[in-house]
Amino acid sequence: xxxxxxxxxxxxxxxxxxxxxxxxxxxxxxxxxxRLYMQLIEEEQDKKLINISLHDINKDYSIxxxxxxxxxxxxxxxxxxxxxxxxxxxxxxxxxRSDIPIxxxxxxxxxxxxxxxxxxxxxxxxxxxxxDINQLAYKxxxxxxxTPSGIDNTxxxxxxxxxxxxxxxxxxxxxxxNLAIIDTGIPKSxxxxxxxxxxxxxxxxxxxxxxxxxxxxxxxTMIEHPEQINQLFQRNQQLLKDIGVSRIEIDNxxxxxxxxxxxxxxxxxxxxxxxxxxxxxxxKNEILELLKENNIKSIEFVECGVEGLREEQTF
Length: 315
Ligand code: PMV
Hints:
It is a single chain. This protein is α+β, with helices and mostly antiparallel strands and 315 residues long. It contains 9 helices and 12 strands. The strands form 2 sheets. Strands 1, 2, 3, 4, 5, 6, 7 and 12 form an 8-stranded mixed sheet that branches. The protein has a 4-stranded antiparallel sheet with strand order 9-10-8-11. The chain is globular and about 65 Å long. Bound molecules: (3R)-3-hydroxy-3-methyl-5-(phosphonooxy)pentanoic acid (PMV). (3R)-3-hydroxy-3-methyl-5-(phosphonooxy)pentanoic acid is lined by residues 14, 18-19, 21-22, 105, 107, 148-149, 151-152, 190, 194, 268-269, 273.
């Protein structure tokens, strides 16, 4: 009989500590109510073949593992890597769909990595072992991003909100009401921004050490004194600007919001992508009106602190 496994896992928002987390500092991250869904069907026949449908980008692939002769996109390389990792011999049909925008800093590749490993792990052993899945999902994330901090795959696996560093993770009860995601619509590259910060750190060792420490102090204070969150968003944003990951369009949006007492900051790598804003009583339309000259792409209010990787009944 064919075997079907369906899983989903959430995207994420970094509330504070992006970039500093690459250098071992603590960050605060929360999962969000946007999920990626993956369905794996293992066919009975002995055939090293993977059929893949990526619904959001309208792409289908049929990969004959005994005859690999193309350079595939990274997500396809990741699927082949995991198929081989679990030493499978049967035909696999894989479908992916997602609510998480791609390349916006909301953890779409992290959720992809976690769901991919999750599906094959459950196929292999019938259970979800979060620790194992997270470790292997980190290896998949490395295919996408080089040597990421691991924050994306970890929050997508475990869900809720986490204090996270490379050597430490702890669930915390952290929720923000009226948190809006503002998509600047400016394309960004995590790798480019991480490389930019690396250059800054190498060339400004004393100054960068101080900035990274101050970012970590911001994060710790967000956790200990959530009532100060507005000032801490502003402070963290200034520090991100100091290490060079903001840009004039982002500064202008943040300035316009600040004039209306809305605190906002970059979330994720910066250079474009998304901002998060504490919107107090403003509605989506009111913010759209405030930012009508800033060419933003969208605003979404999202639920935070949701469940991590889980099995689903339907795709
Ligand atoms: O890919 P993004 O935009 O979610 O950024 C990842 C966060 C960084 O701290 C910039 C990189 C990392 O590996 O943690």
